[in-house]
Amino acid sequence: MGLTITKAHAYGNDFLFVPEAEVQSDPVALARALCARHTGVGADGLILYTVRQAGATMRLWNADGSPSELSGNGLRCLAALVAREQRLDPMVPARATVAIGTTAGLKTLDLLAVEGARYTFRAAMGAPTDLRQAVITVAGEAVPVVRLGVGNPQCIVLGPLPDETRFRAIGGALAVHPAFPDGTNVEFVAVEAPDRIRILIWERGVGPTTSSGTGSSASAVAAAAFGGAERSVDVVAPGGTQRVEWRDDGIYLTGDAEMLVTGVWLPN
Predict the structure, then answer these.
(1) What total of structural domains would you count in the chain?
(2) Of 104, 107, 102, 100, residue with least CA distance to 125
(3) Phi and psi angles of residue 212, each rounded to the nearest 5 degrees, phi first
(4) Do 207 and 107 have their domain in common?
(5) 116 and 159 inside one domain
(6) Do 134 and 192 lie in a common domain?
(7) By residue range, what is the domain housing residue 175?
(8) What are phi and psi of 23, to 5 degrees?
(9) What are the b/e assignments for 63-91, b being 16+ CB within 10 Å?
(10) 25 and 50, same domain (yes or no)
(11) How far apart are the first and last CA of the chain?
């Protein structure tokens, strides 16, 4: 028997979705096998899910098999899967909200638009936690950072974006630094205008990614708190631009997700 797999992405940050009821094997090994770019289906993460009316529950493993509390892009991709299966309609408010249970709590997403297989949502991500500045010595250098949580751990380096060599050296080292016992996502953030920031992302358990929903959220908060940015900004990543609003009642993340394919994986 094979596994039913749906693949979706948000700005190139891609995920595989498997109904939890179909999984009988170790999800760590399954994530590593499925997410492998050349010998599996290929993705940044595996999400096991259970659909319910206008919602779902999810558990996430990174491509290396490590668990993750939350992915903003993965959350939105799952909401798109639910919206597609249940024919939710952005023009009907009573049928335009998706609630998803995650390890980081319940997240609510409002469906704003549907264009073919592309779905646009505004997600309530919750309030940032443990926001503070720090200096971490990494790769022989004392690096000023901003630490915070947005459902998962984040480490932000404000300033001009690094070249490829520095990005890999500093990003890779910070992601597994002893200061972060569970590892951390790392974003390099340049404030280009009061309402626009540009980021590079080193995803925990994955490496460089083209986009990150939680990373975009954390970058916007750090830029507003310590970098002179406004509290509502466009966050430009290599894969595309998302909108982040940091309001008194929490962070709101707006962006797209695109359904790609549903098929059956045939394990050996």
Answers:
(1) 2
(2) 107
(3) -155, 125
(4) no
(5) no
(6) yes
(7) 129-248
(8) -90, 120
(9) bebbebbbbbbbbbbbbbbbbbeeebebe
(10) yes
(11) 10
- Residue 101 and residue 175 in one domain: no
Q: In CATH, what number is assigned to the domain containing residue 215?
A: 3.10.310.10
Q: Walk along the chain (268 residues) and give the pLDDT tens digit of each residue.
A: 689 999 999 999 999 999 999 999 899 999 999 999 999 999 999 999 999 999 999 999 999 999 999 999 999 999 999 999 999 999 998 889 999 999 999 999 999 999 999 999 999 999 999 999 999 999 899 999 999 999 999 999 999 999 999 999 999 999 999 999 999 999 999 999 999 999 999 999 999 999 999 999 999 999 999 999 999 999 999 999 999 999 999 999 999 999 999 999 987 6
Assess whether 48 and 14 both reside in one domain: yes
Residue 162 DSSP class? P
Residue 108, sorted as left (phi over 0), alpha (psi -120 to 50) or beta, turns out to be beta
Distance separating alpha carbons of residues 124 and 223, to the nearest angstrom: 19
Name, in order, each residue with C-beta under 8 angstroms of 19's C-beta and a sequence gap of 6 or more: 4, 48, 49, 50, 51
Instruction: Clarify whether residues 58 and 158 are in a common domain.
Output: no
Two tokens, residue 166: 């520095």
Is residue 73 within a helix (H) or strand (E), and if so which, with residue range? helix 72-86
Within 10 angstroms of residue 157's Cβ, the number of other Cβ atoms is 27
Strands (E), 150-239: 153-158, 185-193, 196-203, 207-209, 232-237
* Pairing status of strand 105-115 against strand 45-52: unpaired
Give the residue among 55, 45, 3 at the shortest CA–CA distance from 24. Answer: 3
The letter for the amino acid at 2 is: G
Same domain assignment for residues 119 and 210: no
